[in-house]
Amino acid sequence: MEKVKIGILGLGAISGIYLKNLSSVFRNVEILGIYDLIEEKAEKVQEEYHISKVYKNMEEMLDDPEIEIVLNLTRPLEHYHVTKSALLAGKHVYSEKPLATTFEEGKELVALAKQQNLLLGGAPDTFLGAGIQTCKKIIDSGFIGKPI
Ligand SMILES: NC(=O)c1ccc[n+]([C@@H]2O[C@H](COP(=O)([O-])OP(=O)(O)OC[C@H]3O[C@@H](n4cnc5c(N)ncnc54)[C@H](O)[C@@H]3O)[C@@H](O)[C@H]2O)c1
Q1: Band of residue 125 on the pLDDT scale cut at 50, 70, 90
Q2: Domains plus CATH for the chain?
Q3: Residue closest by Cα to atom 33 of ligand 1
Q4: What lines the ligand 1 site, CB under 6 Å?
Q5: Can you give the three-state secondary structure of 35-57, one letter per residue?
Q6: pLDDT tens, position by position, 58-95
Q7: CB 46 within 8 A of CB 34
Q8: Of 43, 89, 112, 126, which residue is most buried, by most CB within 10 angstroms?
């Protein structure tokens, strides 16, 4: 099976679970390359997960024709710029939440993805997770009556 090649931008606290799952649970993807502003983080991750490429900067990743999806795990203030740059470079993007820090910028990214015919996904945070969805279900169904 041909694997979809992913590039990860940002190797902070949340990256661990992505690295673990993308390299061991999901068999149809390959983490081809990584980049973080802090070089040592990238070197450590490369060694631990045997990743082929550590890029010198974000642009080098975005210029790599082999990268199909960019995983944006940078901090919220950087999301808009990173995601926009990746979309303009022709990459599909999956971004950690929030998509952007303003509604206007978020809408602009969605429109840009559509215009470029690319997929743009965002981590739903805990709201769509089992815990909160179960609470929603029991409230909506009337199971616990009217919460006051
Ligand atoms: N930490 C969590 O438990 C958690 C949970 C859910 C969601 N998130 C989301 O995940 C994102 C990242 O959170 P975190 O806790 O991992 O942050 P973090 O500060 O630990 O890591 C962010 C990393 O991104 C790097 N970075 C910043 N700009 C970059 C750029 N332009 N190119 C490459 N690397 C860049 C930083 O050097 C840093 O290593 C945030 O949007 C946050 O909302 C975090």
Answers
A1: low
A2: 4-140 (3.40.50.720)
A3: 36
A4: 9-15, 35-38, 41, 58, 73-76, 78, 82, 96-97
A5: ECCCHHHHHHHHHHHCCCEECCC
A6: 999 999 999 999 999 999 999 999 999 999 999 999 99
A7: yes
A8: 89
